[in-house]
Amino acid sequence: LPDDIAAVLRRPPVTAPVTDPDADAATRADDRGHVFHSWSAQSRIDPVPVAGGLGVRFFDDAGRSYLDFGSQLVNLNLGHGHPDLVAAIKTQADRLATIQPSFASDVRGTLARLIVERAGAGFSHVFFTNGGTEANEHALRMARLHTGRHKVLSTYRSYHGATAGSITLTGEPRRWGSEPGIPGVVHFSGPYPYRSPFHATSPEQETERALAHLSDVVTFEGPHTVAAIVLETVVGTNGVLVPPPGYLEGVRELCDRWGILLVADEVMVGFGRLGSWFGIQRFGATPDLITFAKGVNSGYVPLGGVVIPPAVVETFAERAYPGGLTYSGHPLACAAGVASIGVIERDDVLGHVRRLETEVFAPELTALADRHPVVGEVRGLGAFWAIELVRDRETRTPLVPFNAAGADLAPMLEIGAACRARGVWPFLAGNRIHVAPPLISTADEIREGLAAIDAALSEADAKL
Ligand code: PLP
Q1: Mind listing the UniProt keywords for this protein, alphabetically (predicted)?
Q2: If DSSP codes are grouped into helix, strand and coil, which group holds residue 326?
Q3: Whole-model pTM?
Q4: How confident is the model at residue 335 (pLDDT cuts 50, 70, 90)?
Q5: CA nearest to 301, candidates 325, 278, 327, 323
Q6: Element containing residue 127 per DSSP (H, E)
Q7: Torsion of CA 264, 297, 344, 367, to 10 degrees
Q8: Which residues make Cβ contacts (< 8 Å) with residue 213, sequence separation at least 6?
Q9: Mean pLDDT of 264-284
Q10: ipTM
């Protein structure tokens, strides 16, 4: 191969901090010269060149190591360089690197069966996609064709992906740049006890009022026009909003009453993030369709999909499903998925997450909230938590304004820099620090990350 091409392909694995100024400079130059980045003003970014990663850490080319405290974009459930996942991908690449979806493939079939078995009674098939946004696109299409109705409801505080349908379902400001979007999508307010849109004073009242609001929206839209209600089981990027008791069950009842499909977007919480195979299993409701991606194989090869019940499969028994993807159920992605489910089972990762929830996250984050005036609330489940930051605990004024465009984000940027200076890479969104480390993190590694956040918050307290 030509030298410049061989050079990048032959770099050895980097499993500890390295200092390689040439690689650092070359990566920066190619990136800034030629890579167009997501969600960014291209002239205002300066991405860190990452040389490698191992377990809960990754390494740049300037000799620094970072604890990956957001699991990249909450996808890296089993950490970097997991030997079982890497081996599965290598073995599959040697055997059959790709095969188009109209053939049957052993790893694809096995993964579909493993997923259906873990989703529980009520599901029989999986449609595979390349990620979360496509999963939601197909759930939307299936729901419309299955019900013969065209409207789809989703919440304002939500993110469902960046393709046409999913960005329209998305309720938050990232939608605005893609409007008008697709027809037939209606937004409503979901529960958020800390900043109740319904002026509720207790979680129970929040549930009651949020359900009454949703019932009103469906009534005025015309129940016979509504195909689906799409919800993130626990709202992710928009705040780790754990639904108050009875809410999801109430939405399920409402859907049953009107023949509406309930779609649980589990792109962030599926495959162990909440200490259960699917997040919904921590609540008392069963959705009709589940969309997933990220944690299914820790993002080692792009993969997502929709878990489907027999009734929807039946709709397409004699009539063709009008949709497909060249890489649906890609063998390398599916091999990584099969290995990932094997590892989660063998190493009791779900039990580990449940223990971390009660023994580490809940007590340590509660103590952190008590120590820092800048913390308004901590909330979460499993290994999925948010620390919401405020200027004033009484008024609950957010530390930075809700709509980030043009706002003064300095306080959050400073917190990010303070964490990174201590070797911890945090996941920041709005006025929150999201704590979502790899599920394989030890208690000590989580304490290490929280110690950096603790120090960063002390600096933020001092500036209030
Ligand atoms: N749905 C949820 C809840 C997500 O968090 C995301 C991504 O963060 C998506 C959908 C979109 O997934 P992807 O980026 O794989 O298209």
Answers
A1: Aminotransferase, Pyridoxal phosphate, Transferase
A2: coil
A3: 0.98
A4: very high
A5: 327
A6: strand 125-129
A7: -70
A8: 188, 189, 197, 198
A9: 98
A10: 0.99
- For residues 126 and 123, give the distance between their C-alpha atoms in angstroms, rounded to a whole number: 9
Strands 424-425 and 65-68: parallel
Q: How far is the CA of 139 from the centre of ligand 1 (A)?
A: 13
CB atoms within 10 A of CB 350: 19
Ligand 1 contact via 265 beta carbon (within 6 Å): yes
In whole angstroms, give the CA distance from residue 264 to residue 247.
13
Length of the chain, in residues:
464
Note whether 307 and 385 are within 8 A (CB). Answer: no
- What backbone phi and psi angles, to 5 degrees, belong to 434? -95, 130
For 283, the token pair is: 């609540």
| Distance between Cα 262 and ligand 1 center (Å) | 18
* Angstrom distance (rounded) from CA 267 to CA 130: 12
Q: How many CA atoms lie within 13 A of 362 on its CB side?
A: 10
175 alpha carbon, distance to own chain's centre: 17
Q: Is the pLDDT of residue 404 over 80?
A: no
